[in-house]
Structure formats: C-alpha cells, structure tokens
Amino acid sequence: SQQGEEDPQALSIQEGENATMNCSYKTSINNLQWYRQNSGRGLVHLILIRSNEREKHSGRLRVTLDTSKKSSSLLITASRAADTASYFCFYQFYFGTGTSLTVIP
Amino acid sequence: DTGVSQDPRHKITKRGQNVTFRCDPISEHNRLYWYRQTLGQGPEFLTYFQNEAQLEKSRLLSDRFSAERPKGSFSTLEIQRTEQGDSAMYLCASSLSVTGGLEFYGYTFGSGTRLTVV
Asked: Chain A closest CA to B93's CA: distance in Å?
C-alpha cells in the first residue's frame, strides 16, 4: 500500500496546549499536504509544503518536511476546542492513516 | 462558484442494483478525483482525470466501477451490481494543475455521497 502512516493515531490535549502529529510517507513527492476532517464533515485543505521547502507556517499551523527521512510533522499551537478533528497528511494521491485530535476545553 | 458539488448526498440501494453518482468540480480546475472513505479510515484513492482523460485508476477500482468525465467538466462514478462492501462515503475533489503537472494549491473536496447497500 502507498498509504502513509501517521503517529499518534489519537491525541488528547487541553485547550491552549500544542499538538504535534507526524507523517511517514513512502514515495518521492512534489509536495505534501495536510487536511482536516471534522466528524461527519468534508475534508478541508490546511497547508501545502513543496518538496524544496523545509518549513512552512500558516496562522497557528507549522509544517515541517524532511525528504531524506520521508517524514512530515504538523504542529498546531495554542489549540482550541474547535481544532477537534481528524488530521491527514496527503501526498501524490494517498492519504495517511490519520490522527484523531481531541482538544478538551 | 460554490465549490465542488456532489449529488446525491445519500443513496440507499439494494444489493445487485446499479448506482451512479455525479460530481461538479470547480470550473477552473482541470483535475478531478474520486475517493472512497469508510468509517474511521482515511480516504482511499479510486481514480483521477486531467480534463477528460482518465489518467490513473487504483486497483481498488474493480470492473464493477466506472468513471467518466465527458468534456472535462462534471464526472460520474457508476457502480454496477452493488455489494454490501461498497457501502462507504464517495468523495470527489478537484484541483488546478499548473505547467509540469505540479500543484501549488490543495484539493477542494465535495461533501460526498454516502452509499448504503442493503
């Protein structure tokens, strides 16, 4: 399977804390993307990082990419209850296994 | 343009029946994708189109599945002789691919069609 693997599978934190999710992928990439999916809702694109970039920021999101290790991480700072969702990395056509994040108010 | 539209939102069908789903992508987007998602799992790639050409198909897309994108606009996904294992959310997405096939923007997903085979 080309599917990437995410770690941890589930994460529970208090509001205001930071959340870090990691993704391991299997092929060479042009870019890697992160998506969020709220329970029962559609997928929303969060951020895209190109293969020649090492770090990218968007609001409270910080994404890193290490192509030598075929890995990426997503950091959400100062988490809010509304950040509760599943987060997926995505590359080529394939989604990772996802991290379920719960932010406790 | 209000994004990617999928129709119907829900479909309940009896095993053995054929079903067809429709996706209307963002008009400026030249690529269109179909995914399938079951509860608790990430979306699984089925197929994608660049304009009207179907360029890649997953092994998940059995002979009972067929997708079309006539004229490079909307797309249909048909499942013939449905099985209970086909029950899932079917997601459509579109994107803009620039010169060289590189995407600098993310995919826009529709809300999906939930298929239940009874």
From this structure: 9
Residue B3, sorted as left (phi over 0), alpha (psi -120 to 50) or beta, turns out to be left
Chain B interface mutation, best of A93, A94, A100, highest count of B Cβ atoms under 10 Å: A93
pLDDT (tens digit per residue) in A16-59: 999 999 999 988 888 999 999 997 778 999 999 999 999 999 99
SS3 assignment, position B86 = helix
**Closest to B16 in 3D by CA, of B50, B64, B49, B53:** B64
pLDDT digits (tens, 9 = 90+) for A2-11: 678 899 999 9
C-alpha distance from B37 to closest chain A C-alpha (Å): 11
Do A3 and B110 count as a contact with CB atoms less than 8 A apart? Answer: no
Please answer yes or no on whether A93 and B105 come within 8 Å at the CB atom.
Answer: no
User: What is the DSSP code string of B14-54?
Assistant: -TT--EEEEEE--TT--EEEEEEE-TTS--EEEEEEETTEE
